Amino acid sequence: MKLNIAKQRKQSLISIVDDEACVRESLSSLVRSVGYRVEEFPSAESFLLDGKWDETACLILDVRLQGMGGLELQRRLVEMGREHPPIVFISGHATEKDQAWAATAGAVAFLRKPFGDEALLNAVRDAVARVRGESGPTVCFSFFGCPEALTVNNHANGGTRQKV
Length: 164
Description:
Layout: H1 2-11, E1 13-17, H2 21-33, E2 37-41, H3 44-50, E3 56-62, H4 70-79, E4 87-91, H5 96-104, E5 109-112, H6 117-131, E6 138-141, E7 149-153, E8 160-163
């Protein structure tokens, strides 16, 4: 079983879009350390142009970027009318309105910088599970106040939240 999980991770592409090289490198190192393939992009535009969006199992995306922002990239992916990768947003500057829009458009998680390694890895695992059609609770993270973990149950039925 563990061998199968490791093989699936190795095949799953995680794309990281952040305009700060040190953040991209740090996140890339963390995600690779648990067995995923990683591609790094310095901008939303480079992610769109490279074409990796259709093979990405999870997109780790900063909200504020030089040029096109993360929320605009999410909007464009939705408008493309194709299946887009689950998104884990990261931000140190986003508003409650930004978080609400991201969640409404299907973001898997919204993490406030600085966040813990496990919070990010749990969100990535959840995103990859969604791509594979595996069921289970969707993990989100509180953006405001302390970063308490929340489980969002059945978003289509109103999405009740419970502390985990």
